Amino acid sequence: MISGLLAGILLQVTALAPMDYPGFDANLAQYLPTICAIPMPSERGPLQKLEQKLATTVQYARNKATAAEWGAVACARAMLSAIDAPARGSFLMYAGTSWKNGARDAARRAIAIDPSSHPGIDVIAVLAVGELDRKPDDDLAVLRVAVEAGVHTPEVLRACTELAFRTEDHDLMARCTREALSLGLDSTWHQLRLARQRFRDADTLGGTAAFLAAARSARGRVARMDLDWHLQWFLSPTERGVWQNLPDSGRGAWAEDRLRERDLRDGRPPGTRLAEHFARLEFVEDNFRLRVPDVMRQAARTGAATFLGFRVGQGFLAAADSGALPVVLDSTGAITSELAWREYRRWQINFDDRGVVWMRFGKPDQIAMNTPLQGQAGYVTWKYMVDGQPMLVHFREVDFDGSSGATDMAVGVVAGWQCGMDVARCLASQGYSIATAEQFRQQDREYLAIATTRDDNSPRGRKTIRAVGLVYQLWDVATGAPLSIYAYGVRVSDLMITPDATGNARAAVAIAFRRWHPATAEWREDSLPSLLDIPEGHGGDTHATAFRILPAEGGIASWGMTVVQDSTRWGRAYGNTTPLSTDSVALSDLIAAPESRGISWVHRGDRIYLSPGGIVTKQEPLRLYYQVRSQGELGGASTQIAMSPIVRGVVDSVPATTLGFTSPLHAGVNVSNRTLDLSQLPAGKYQLEVRVTSREGVVLAWRGAVIDVE
């Protein structure tokens, strides 16, 4: 399994509502009345009567019909389209013509009379933004005339920017974007389009600035929806929950933190993950677009109907819903059981399932597919290698004609044609049992969960160097200034080792340590020592360890380390920290380490034992160092140190062991250096926490850390 990406994942994924492309509000029935001057009923019967009345008016007026009268017809027909009313003939609208096309024709007649016609031009603009598969040339020509005539409504400028972007009309796009931003109209929408254009032009700095400006300007439901559509491709379900509850004022900084965090994790320069997002989007739009009738797409938005075989709503089907045996395909592509398990419910209404995975993980490292017989389904498996661990994702084409068209994700796919990418599946395809089926099914469920809730943009194709690291944030005991300690380790067996002139074993590596400071919006980077001393008698999992002191540096929120050797080997470690509190009483990070890690630092007379991470054996005492900073004298403060089991990702409310004591706090930095006995604890994960309370029982400060006990 992909341990780094899998950490904390839930296989039952949080449900997501279907989201349309940025700028397209699917609820046209509520949106149209805001741009149409006539009152319109929402029921089909009265609305059809209104359309007939308005059409009769222009029919009798003939050449004397006004732009406003034709605009009213366009509005009524657009509303009929919005409520999915069956089409019927009307004036200058042949039987079988959709209400949408009838609305477009009426709007064009209004514009022909008056280029600045309202609402005719607005109806054209609203319909054009939502029709991704329609050639935009005719609509764009109309919009160009309207803009030149001085029509600068939000709908027109939005559609102008969108269609100009699709047709790469840079001058018109720039004109409409500048006009909209100068008027303060749809700033989020236009900044997002500007960001995409700048990334298309390889302007990473400008693209990042425009995207973050879009995040900061997102106000109201529609603007948030525009931004949400992009963020859905890199946020995890947990992050999405946080994002949706943020106030508008905090969205810009939060989005920037998540993007910087990913660049640090992936070992990339600032802005790379966002640039990759837009590059992936270009590819997915060209290759994995779902082209389905509007009526099906609308039904998918509401969940009222199935969408290419699945009801909308992200999650996994229960076993009872799956109702099928796993598929087994032999080397010729013959199917030995009817169906693959279908455990992924499509939620995306614009791309097929391949697009969902590509947006999060990019191009696969390896692709294999069957050669189906006539009438049988085509299958394809994508393989990713992330940090040396595989992830397999399987797709089945939905038309059952052996084509490579729109596909659904499946689990339990085992076949001879996978021999070049997975030895276990290759062998299993020759003799498949029920026990083996369940084993691969469960493995694929985990892969599928990762592929649809995590993301990655790290370099692939190199031998993996396994690295670990932890950042500890403290204060200087004498001055109170912030400082950070970075403890790190690199697995020796992953390195090329050469003896130096004295015969000592060393490994030459390039190590870069980067971190993000959100309070000051600073990205900092340092090179760590390039020669690692290799421990004598090292075994298979031995790590070469070291540490670096970062004086006068605090407020680190996320960090990343990359290890490179001889351009053929690459590894990383990354993580997040909580910046130290500025409250009147505050706790530093908890530094918990056994002495056997072999690294320590003496600070103002106190020896601090350090650890870059890893499992702690309960036979060895754990050394715990932390600080309490107080802005004044505080008598009678109580401290409790507790170890609480973590079961299935949840911290048990009942600690397995506790240690309590009372001692006064002096003004400044108070040091605690203790030894913990873990010998009586069962093996497992624990949350180590320190809690400081006042004499009255009020919690003054709290800090925690996860300890893995073996």
3D architecture notes:
- With 710 residues, this protein is of the alpha+beta class.
- A 7-stranded mixed β-sheet has the order 14-13-17-18-9-10-16, covered by helices on one side. Strands 24, 25, 26, 28 and 29 form a 5-stranded antiparallel β-sheet that branches.
- The two termini are 20 Å apart.
- The model is unreliable at 1-15, 302-327 and 330-340 (pLDDT under 50).
Beta-strand residue percentage: 25-35%
Give the uncertain stretches in residue-range form: 1-15, 302-327, 330-340
The rounded distance between the terminal residues' Cα atoms is: 20 Å
With strands numbered from the N-terminus, the spatial order across the biggest sheet is 14-13-17-18-9-10-16
Overall morphology: globular
* SSE-based structural type: alpha+beta
Helix content: 25-40%
Strand segment count = 29
Mean pLDDT: 86
Radius of gyration, whole Å = 31 Å
The biggest beta sheet reads:
7 strands, mixed
Give me the number of helical elements. Answer: 20
